[in-house]
Amino acid sequence: MSDTDEKKGASTFAKGLRVLECFEGGARGLTMAGISKATGMDRATVRRLCLTLVESGYLVQSGHDLHLTPRILAPAGGYLMANDFGRAIQPVLTAFAQELGGEISMAVRDRDRALYVAQSATPGARLSIGFVVGSTIPLLPTAIGRMLLACSPRADRERVLRTRPHIRYTDATDIDPASLDARINAAADQGYAIVRGEFETGVTALAVAVGNHAHTTAVIGTSVAGAALADDAERARMLDILRRAARSLRGPDRSAPL
């Protein structure tokens, strides 16, 4: 294969991934025209890519609508099994979620967002806007996101603050770069991030670093409705549980938190 053919194949593969990324927000069905608009690719290219993905079993077409198939989960399942999520991560999260009496989620950086990779909750616990494994959340207005940034090099933090859109999700969302920088620095210094009502109205979230897992920094966090974390004793209790969970998640090949 010539260098030109190799580059062309790599480019086509990347475009195919862009098509699949259009479904990340939970869309139940997308048209080729919609995918073309979302990706900026011409309709002929999108049609070829979509038909290839249908033939490969990753998409199914119903009328004009395209839907993901369960096959898309197989690569994700491979990642989770290869990194011991079922055997080593999930039991720890389950045990500490029961002690917490709520939910605990584990997330890693995926470019300029946080990606949920594991989650456990007690019956009746609130789950943040129905997020599941594979869901993504922004870095700046969330406790998990700020803790991930606190574990990142200074230059990366500055880049995110400079280039990411500052979206006001609620009336309490902090969109001032200087203030956000101070909050992220505070999270790095104190070893935890706390965010009150900036991503979801009336919800307070708490997050701590785990360390490196599967070649990337991981954090765990929880969230509660109302003013539960306004109480010093309750905040200390939940923070203690998260910190002990983080220590339990570190094995011989996992580094200490940054």
Automatic annotation (TrEMBL):
It comes from the Bacteria. Pfam families: HTH_IclR, IclR_C. InterPro entries: GAF-like_dom_sf (IPR029016), HTH_MetabolicPath_Reg (IPR050707), Tscrpt_reg_IclR_C (IPR014757), Tscrpt_reg_IclR_N (IPR005471), WH-like_DNA-bd_sf (IPR036388), WH_DNA-bd_sf (IPR036390). Residues 71-255 form the IclR-ED domain. Keywords: DNA-binding, Transcription, Transcription regulation. Residues 10-70 form the HTH iclR-type domain. This is Helix-turn-helix domain-containing protein. It comes from Pararhodobacter zhoushanensis.
